[in-house]
Design goal:
Elements lengths: L1 H10 L3 H16 L5 E2 L8 E5 L2 E9 L2 E9 H16 L1
Antiparallel strand pairs: 1-2, 2-3, 3-4
């Protein structure tokens, strides 16, 4: 269900932003450590900047990257924290 929500959100974005996100995801795949390491409650996650948006992801295994959330910087970290808490319950 969560994947469906992310798909709906990205569909409603401007085509230029979608293009930038797609390019950024390709960059993350080739260089997983390129994102900024997050701290405190979000330790173990990384954040990659795409204009005013952030892609929050986790390196699960050497060749597996899990996208946790994509959204505007102003609220993405709070939303990510809520998602992480729901998963741990």
């Amino acid at each position: 269900m969560r994947d469906r929500c992310k798909t709906k959100r990205t569909r409603s974005l401007h085509p230029e932003i979608k293009r930038k996100i797609k390019g950024s995801l390709k960059h993350i795949i080739t260089e997983p450590n390129s994102g900024k390491s997050l701290k405190e409650e979000l330790e173990g996650l990384r954040s990659f900047r795409v204009s005013r948006l952030r892609i929050v992801y986790r390196i699960a295994e050497p060749k597996e990257i899990q996208i946790i959330a994509i959204g505007p910087r102003v609220r993405i970290y709070e939303e990510t924290y809520r998602l992480i808490r729901k998963e741990s319950k």
